[in-house]
Structures are given as C-alpha cells and as structure tokens.
Amino acid sequence: MKTPFVMAISFLLLAFAAKPLVGSRLHDINGDDVRADQEYYVLESGNGRGLTTLRHRGDSCPLDVAQVTSAPRTGKPLKFKAYNSSRFIYEAVDLNVKFSIVDSCSDSLVWKVDNYDEERGKWFITTGGNEGDPGAKTLLNWFKFERIGTSDPATYRIVYCPSVCASCLFLCQNVGVSFEDSARRLVLKADYEPVFPVVIFPAEGAAKCESRMPVHYNS
Ligand SMILES: *[C@@H]1O[C@H](CO)[C@@H](O)[C@H](O)[C@H]1NC(C)=O
C-alpha cells in the first residue's frame, strides 16, 4: 500500500501536469498578440471555417453558435474580453466571447453555455450571455483558449472551465462541434472526444491575410 505521502506527491504531480501554461498571450495567425479592442474570426484549423449565429434548435432565441457551412467562410467577427479587462488576451484565462454583428434576436451576443438540451442530450453554446461581472452568477459565460502544441500558427482549443468562482462545482469540458438539426453547432464535448482546433484571424485586413491561411479545401 502506498503511504499517504507518496499519494499526496502523485496528486501534486498530476495537478501540475494537467495545468496549462499561464501567462502567454494569445496569438493570431500572423503571430501578433490578440487584443481586447480588435475584432477577430475564429476559424477551424485546416479548413478555415469560421463561426456564426444560427436560429436556436427550438427555433426561438437565443441564437446558437454554429460553424459556417457556406460563404463567407469566415463567419462573423468577434471580440474577446478577459475577466479582468486586460488589454491583451492571455491563454487559459476566463474570457467573454462576443459577436460584433447584431442579429435577429435582441439578446446579447455574448457566448454562454445554454440550459441542458434534454431532447438532444447536449449542452449547446448560444448567445444571450452576460458580459463581465465574474463570479457564480456568470459561471456559464466564461471560456478559455488553450494552446494545442507548439507549431505555428498558434492553434487553440476552446475550453469551458471557469475559474471565476472558486467554490463552484462543474465539469471542465472542451467546446466542439456537433451536427444537430442540419447544422454544425457548438456544444460541450467530453474529454475523450476529438478536439476542435481553431486559429484566430484578425478581422481587420482579412483579405490581406487570406493567402496566409493554411486552408485545405477537402469538401
Ligand atoms: C489580467 O490577468 C492576466 C492573467 O491572469 C494577467 O496576466 C494580467 O496582468 C491581468 N491584467 C490586468 C490588467 O489586471
């Protein structure tokens, strides 16, 4: 039998191993720091398909966050806002993610984890979230970008694992795509499911950067 000391050490090691690197800034596809005051597209790495809003599955508001299936492939621009309103956006830090384009629903364009969809057995990502005010009340409104690998351009996974409430209990999950009701909608995914890898593309001067995008048109 292991001594409690050895067990404590292995728990500590596990805790460190699972911790992503903090303190690095998010980088866009050009290697520039991602800023809170600029608009970006979040595109799937490899196929370059961006994110947009779609009618809710139950065909009411709020809107679902979904991946584009037709032109423009970039989808809609969005902005990041860190829990502490920092000027630059950091890896593995709680962020509000907000579309910049007003849509048919009057709700906010801030991402949130929607109520559990019993019919489909999933947690969908929708708009209609609250911006700022980090804490238990806004637990469903925070997302993190964590770097995958070290290759360029910087590639990230989107994670729901809020740190804004130390006493709150929830499961950390990746944000991924699920084909539901004829669309590729964003949902929370289990750890063992494939990661949805994204790159961050500056909306400003998008045309200029188009040629740098590592796009493989395989559909
Ligand atoms: C905000 O938080 C990040 C990460 O925790 C930190 O690096 C940064 O210095 C903070 N910025 C401000 C303005 O507090």
From TrEMBL:
Keywords from the UniProt entry: Signal
SMART domains: STI
First and last residue of the signal peptide: 1-24
One example GO MF annotation: endopeptidase inhibitor activity
InterPro entries: Kunitz_inhibitor_STI-like_sf (IPR011065), Prot_inh_Kunz-lg (IPR002160)
Descriptive protein name: 21 kDa seed protein
Lineage: Eukaryota, Viridiplantae, Streptophyta, Embryophyta, Tracheophyta
